[in-house]
Structure formats: C-alpha cells, structure tokens
Specification:
- The chain has six helices and eight strands.
- The protein is α+β, with helices and mostly antiparallel strands and 179 residues long.
- The protein has one domain: Aminopeptidase, CATH 3.40.630.30.
- Helix 1 crosses helix 4 (46-62).
- The longest helix has 17 residues, at 46-62.
- It is globular.
Length: 179
C-alpha cells in the first residue's frame, strides 16, 4: 500500500528509514511517550528502529499489521507513522494508531493518509469496521479522526494505562464501510 501527494508519501518502512525513524521518535519523545509509549520504546536507538522495521515488515507481509511511514517528499525523512493494527479478519475490523512530528503537524498529511488507508482496508482487505481509540485530551487526534469521517461511539472505561500511571478512559471513534 502506497499513497503520495506533492508534499508527502505514505509507504512501508524500509531498513534505510531506521535513522530517520529513530530521530523522529527521539525529537518528539515527550508527546509520543504520552500517546504511543510502546512504539517509542521500540525506537530508542537506530538499532532498535532497525529491529522494529524488520518486525513490521514481517507483519506487513503476513497482513497482520500495516505500519506505514509518512515521508516528506523533499527530504525522504520519516515525518510520522500510520499503523493499521489489531486486525481481526473474522469480524472484519481493524484499529488505527498514528503519530506525526511537531515539525510536520497541521499540514493534513495524517488525515489524508487515514482516508487512503481506510479505502485500502475496506476495498483490499475486506474490513467493514475501523476504529481509533483516543484520549479525550488529545484534541489534534480527535480532529484527525473526525476529518477522516470517524464518528464518536462511546467511552471505553480504563482502556489504557500510561507508563507508571493509573488506567484512563479512552474515546472510541469508528468508521463503517458504506460500499
């Protein structure tokens, strides 16, 4: 699955992206720690990022998870990630996670990517339901979900435990296949 515009492209992570991915994670560590602690923890060094990319490549081949790099067209640097995960082909459902570096935020890249990957999930993978689970304080992510056509469904009680903290409620946004 690839997607591109005049300013960015979305494609599978490659081993040569390890340095750029690691730099993205480290330079945005504070915000990623809050909302994507597991992804951050797996990318704390360039070697960690290489191992992460290898695992994600295998998952992509097996179609168990799709971890895609959002890349700046001009520099080819990893600007963010769009992850289609928790795929359940029995109930035809998947979940999105995503992040983007502060430097690239506000350009609409994640929204465009979520829309493109949603089409792929519905048309190529045969999924019927997509989810995004967001903390109510993550307004940027909520706006991305809404602009991508997702609707708030319900509050999930104690659905996420941030590192070293108590469980918190999360908000469930969903998009259903209309085709």
């Amino acid at each position: 699955m690839t997607f591109s515009t005049e300013t960015f492209k979305l494609e599978a992570l490659k081993l040569e992206d390890a340095s750029s991915l690691n730099a993205l994670m480290i330079s945005n560590g504070k915000s990623f720690q809050e909302y994507l602690p597991q992804t951050l923890a797996q990318n704390l060094s360039e070697l960690d990022s290489k191992n992460y990319i290898q695992k994600k490549h295998t998952a992509l081949k097996d179609q168990t998870e799709f971890t895609l790099a959002l890349k700046d067209i001009d520099t080819n640097h990893v600007a963010g990630l769009v992850i289609l995960k928790n795929l359940d082909y029995q109930i035809k459902q998947g979940e999105f996670a995503y992040c983007i570096g502060k430097k690239y935020s506000g350009k609409g890249w994640v929204t465009q990517s979520i829309k493109a990957v949603s089409r792929f999930a519905f048309e190529d993978l045969g999924l019927q339901h997509l989810q995004i689970i967001i903390h109510k304080t993550n307004e940027k992510s909520i706006n991305i979900a809404k602009r991508s056509g997702f609707k708030w469904t319900k509050t999930l009680e104690n659905a996420f435990t941030p590192p070293g903290e108590n469980p918190v409620n999360m908000e469930l946004y969903e998009l259903h296949y209309e085709g």
